[in-house]
C-alpha cells in the first residue's frame, strides 16, 4: 500500500527529507523526533511497541463496546477507556507535529490524517449530547475503529509484494474491467430471465447477484429458480472458477520475475559474475568475498 | 484504468486493411475516419473519451431505470435520456459506416453488430406500444444494457493475457471437459442417493448442484441431507478445491513463458516472423540470420 | 486420467500390442478394427464423431427422462430412445470384442467395462418389471448416465497436464492428508463448542461442516452461532483461503518444469544445441534444419 | 498415500541426537527402540502400520460414538473399544519413555505431549462419574479424537513444501496482516451501514461477516440488505477474489525456486552447508571449493 526502499522502510516514509531538511532542531525536539519516528534506539523501539499495543487495545475496546450485552453493562468503563486512548493519541499527535520541521506537510500526509481522524470523533461527540443524536454519536464512536489504519505504518517486509503488484497493475485493471463487463451482461440477462418474482427485482441487484456468483461467494439470498436461469448461473460459476486463474497467473509470473531480479542484483567484485543467492557470502564462481568491508 | 498507448492495438482491430486499402477517400471522410477510428490526434482522443462517457452513462441509465422506486418517479426523464443516447449512437453508427471504404464489412464485424444492437431496441420498441406487450418492451429496454460491449474496444493492454489464454486454450478445454464429465457423474449419483424429497428433483437439477458445489459457490438452496450424500458432497468439494489448481497452474506457466518471450520483439528480416528467443542468432522459421551486420 | 505418449494417444490406449500382436486377422475384422479403433481413415473419423453424438444424445435422454414434467408426458418416446441407444451400444460392444485379437483382455480393460456397464442396466431392467421394484428400475435407468465415461477416450491433449499431476501426486497427497487432519480437529472442536442445539449434532456432521467451510463452499445449512464458534470458523476460513495456495503452487511449479522439459527435448543435429521452441523449424543457433527429412 | 523412504525424515524428528547420544543402552531397550522409533527393520514397519491402523480405528470409534443413533445402541461396545485403545496407547507411551535415553526430553516434545493427551481423557473420565458431570465427560471423550495428531509423524515427503512455506512465512504474515486490517475496516463500515436490524448486531459479528465474504465462503446467514451495503459487499468480494492471487503467487514463486534448488543436494565439505546452485564452484558460505579433485 505504502512503502519504500531498505530496512528502515517505514521510518523513512514518515520522514521524507522535507520534514527534516535544513538547520538542526533544538536538542529536545531532536530527541522526541528520534523516539517517535526512528526505531533504531531502545527508547524508539519501546515507543513503537507501546503504541502498537495502544492501537490494538483501543480497537478491541471499540469492538467490544459495540456488542450489546457487553456495552450496556460496562458503559462506564468503556467511557473511561475511550478517553484514556483519546488523550494518549492526542498527546502523540501533538508531539509528532511539534518535532517535525514542517508540521503542515506531516498533517496533510496519509498517516497524519489517520492520526487526526483517530482522535477527532471523541471530541466531536462531546458537542452532540442531546438524546435525539444518539445514532450520530454511535456512528462517531464506531469511526474510532479506523485507528487500525495506524497499524499500516508497521507494514514493512512487503517490498517485493508491492513492487510485483504495481508491475501487474495494468493487467489486473484489464482483468477487473472484463469482469465488470461480464457481471453487467449476465446480471441484466438474469433480470430478464428470472424477473422480480424470483428476487431479481432490478438490474443493480442482479449485477450484485452476478458478482456474488462469479467470485464464488454464493450467499444464497438470491438464487436462480428457472431452468434457463440455472443454466446461465452454471455458466457464470464455471467462468468464475476458470478466470480466477487470470489474476493468480499474472501475479505469480510477476512475482517470479521479481524473485529472479532479487537474485541477480549483486555482482562479484572479483570475477564480475552475477546471480548470487540473497544469503550468499562468497562468490560461487571464484570464491571471493561478495561484500568486502 | 484502461486506455493504452503502446502499439495502436485496438485501432488495428477496427481497421483491418480491407477497410482502408485502395484509392484515397474524399478529404472529409478521411477526417471523420481519423476522428472516429484513430486515437492519435487530439480530436480523436476527445471523441474516444466522450464516447466512453456516453456508453457508461447510458448503461447507468438503463440500470437505474430498472429499479422500481426510481424508474416510476423519473419515468419521463429516463424516456428523454434513452432517446438522447439512441440518437447519439445512431449518428455515430452512420458516421462509422460512411467513412470506411467497405461499410458492409464493418457492419458484419463484431463491433459493427454491437453498434447496431445498441440502437435497435429503442427503435423496435416504438412499434410495440400496446398495453399487452409491456413485458416485451421491458425486455427490449433492458437489452440496451448490452451497449456495455461497446466498451470492449477500449481493451488494449491485454496482449500477453490473451496470447497466453489462446496458447492454453486446448488445455483449458480438456480441463472443462473433465469437469463436465465429473459434474454429470456426481450429479446423477446425488439424484439417486438424495432423491426428490431432499430437493434433488431431477438429474439436470442435481448437475446444477454439482456445479454450484465444485466451483465452491455453495448457494445452499440445495444441500445434501443424508449421510451418504454428505460424504459424496465432501468428495466433490475437496476435488473442486484441489482441481482449481489446474487452470491456475496452466495459465501461470503459460504466462510466465509469455513474459520470458516478451523480451524480444525482434522480427526476422527475411520472413517477418516474431517470437524469437533472446539468445537466438538465426530465425527459427526460415533459418536466416536475425541481425545481419 | 489415463493416457500416454504421442499424437495417436487415445487410439494406442485401446490397442495395446496385446490386442493386435501375432498373425494377421481376417480382412473384414481388420477393416472393422480400423474403423472402430483407428481415427486415421475417413470411415474411422465418421465412426468416432457418430459415436460421440450417440453418447451425448443418450446422456441427454437420461437427464431429460429424470425431469418429472418431461418424463411423464413423453414416457413412450424415452422408452424407444433408450432401446435405440442400448441396441446401438450393444452392437458396438460386440463388434469391438470381435475385431480385437484378445477379446477377454479388452473386456477387462477400463473402457471395456464402461462399454459393458453402459448397456447392462437396460437389459437387467427387463427382469425387474414388478410394481414393487420401481425404485430399483429408476436406479438402473439412471445408471445409464455413466455412459458419459465413454467420452473419456476422447481425452487427448492432456499429456503434460497428466504428467505434471502424476509428478505432484505425492505432494498433493501430503496436502490432502494435512487437510484431513485439520478438518477432523476443527470439526470435533466445533462439535464441543456449538453442540447439537446449533446443528452440530455429531462429529461426522461437524467434520462435514469443516470441509464445507475450509473449501470455501459455505452452503450455510450449518453455521456457527456462538461467539467462540464464529472465531474458530474465521480461523478455518482464513486457513482455507491461505492454503488453497499450496496445491496451486505445487501444480504451477510442476507444470512450469514440464513446459521447460518440453522445450529442451530436441537437439540440433548440426551443432547439438538444445532449448528449441516447439514450433521451431530451424536451429536458432546455427540455422540448420531441425528435422531434416 | 503417506510413508516415505528417502531420507529417514520423520525418524530423525523423533530421535534428535539428545535422545540416543552417549553410552549404549541395554540390548532389549535397544531392540524396543528400533521397533518403535525406526522404520528400517521388518518389525519396525509392522509396528508403524499397526499403530497407524490403531490411530485411525480409534478416531473412527470416537466419531461414530458421537452420532446419537449409533452411540446409544452400541454404548457397551464403544466402552470396550475405548478402553482397548486407551490401554494400547498407554503401553506404547510407556515403552517409548523407557527406551529413550532422556524420557523427560521426549515427554516434553510435541509428539510426547500428543501421546500423553491421547490417553489422558479416558483416565480422567474415570473420576468424573457423577450424573451431573455428563457434559464434562462428553467433552473429555471427544478430546480423544485429537489422537489424530499422532498421524502427524507419518508426514514425510513434505520437505520442499514446508521449506517453501517457511521461506514465504514473512510475506504470508504481511498478507494476513493486511487482510486483518481490511476485514476490521469493512466490518465496521457494514455495522454502521446495515445496522442491527439487518443482522449486523455488533462489530465483531460484522467482522465475522467480512471474513466469511472476503474468503468467498459466503454462508448467507448474514447478507447485506441495503443498496449501499450491497455495493460495499461487492467491493469486498471482488477484492477477496483478486487478492487470493497474492498467497498463491507467493507460494508458487517460492516453490518454483525450491524446485530449482532441489537439483543439488551437494554439501560443502568445509562448512557442511547445503543449498548450492547447480553451477556453483565455490561454497557460497565459506568460499571453499565444492568438488576438490
What does this protein structure show overall?
The structure is a homotetramer of 293-residue chains. With 293 residues, chain A is mainly alpha-helical. The first copy, chain A, is built from 15 helices and no strands. The longest helix of chain A is centred in the middle third of the chain and has 26 residues, at 169-194. Chain A is flat, with a radius of gyration of 27 Å. Chain A starts with 8 loop residues before the first helix and ends in a 30-residue tail after the last helix. The model of chain A is unreliable at 1-18 (pLDDT under 50).
Shape of chain A: flat
Task: Determine the mean pLDDT of chain A.
Answer: 76
Biggest β-sheet strands, sense, barrel of chain A:
none
CA-atom Rg of chain A in angstroms? 27 Å
Got a strand count of chain A? 0
Poorly predicted spans of chain A: 1-18
- Structural class of the secondary structure composition of chain A? mainly alpha
Which oligomeric state applies? homotetramer
Count of structural domains of chain A = 2
CATH H-tier superfamily of the largest domain in chain A? Voltage-gated potassium channels. Chain C
Question: What would CATH call the class of the largest domain in chain A?
Answer: Mainly Alpha
How helical, in percent, are the residues of chain A?
55-70%
Show the largest interface.
A-D, 66 and 61 residues
Instruction: Give me the CATH architecture of the largest domain in chain A, please.
Output: Up-down Bundle
Strand percentage of chain A? under 5%
Amino acid at each position: 500500500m505504502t512503502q519504500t526502499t531498505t530496512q528502515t522502510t517505514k521510518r523513512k516514509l514518515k520522514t521524507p527529507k522535507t520534514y527534516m531538511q535544513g538547520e538542526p532542531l533544538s536538542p529536545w525536539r531532536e530527541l522526541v523526533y528520534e523516539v517517535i519516528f526512528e526505531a533504531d534506539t531502545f527508547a524508539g523501539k519501546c515507543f513503537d511497541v507501546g503504541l502498537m499495543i495502544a492501537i490494538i487495545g483501543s480497537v478491541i475496546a471499540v469492538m467490544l463496546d459495540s456488542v450489546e450485552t457487553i456495552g450496556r453493562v460496562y458503559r462506564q468503563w468503556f467511557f473511561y477507556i475511550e478517553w484514556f486512548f483519546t488523550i494518549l493519541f492526542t498527546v502523540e499527535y501533538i508531539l509528532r507535529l511539534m518535532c517535525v520541521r514542517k508540521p503542515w506537510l506531516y498533517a496533510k500526509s496519509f498517516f497524519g490524517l489517520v492520526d487526526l481522524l483517530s482522535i477527532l470523533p471523541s471530541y466531536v461527540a462531546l458537542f452532540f449530547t442531546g438524546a435525539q443524536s444518539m445514532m450520530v454519536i454511535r456512528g462517531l464512536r464506531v469511526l474510532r475503529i479506523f485507528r487500525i489504519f495506524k497499524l499500516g505504518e508497521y507494514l514493512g517486509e512487503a517490498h517485493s509484494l508491492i513492487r510485483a503488484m504495481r508491475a501487474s497493475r495494468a493487467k489486473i485493471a484489464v482483468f477487473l474491467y472484463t469482469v465488470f463487463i461480464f457481471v453487467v451482461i449476465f446480471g441484466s440477462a438474469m433480470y430478464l430471465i428470472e424477473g422480480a418474482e424470483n428476487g431479481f427485482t432490478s438490474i443493480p441487484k442482479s449485477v450484485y447477484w452476478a458478482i456474488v456468483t462469479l467470485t464464488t461467494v454464493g450467499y444464497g439470498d438470491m438464487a436462480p429458480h428457472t431452468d434457463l436461469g440455472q443454466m446461465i448461473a452454471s455458466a457464470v460459476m464455471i467462468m468464475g472458477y476458470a478466470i480466477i486463474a487470470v489474476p493468480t497467473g499474472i501475479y505469480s509470473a510477476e512475482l517470479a520475475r521479481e524473485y529472479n531480479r532479487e537474485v541477480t542484483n549483486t555482482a562479484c567484485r572479483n570475477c564480475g559474475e552475477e546471480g548470487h543467492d540473497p544469503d550468499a557470502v562468497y562468490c560461487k564462481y571464484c570464491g571471493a568475498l561478495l561484500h568486502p568491508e
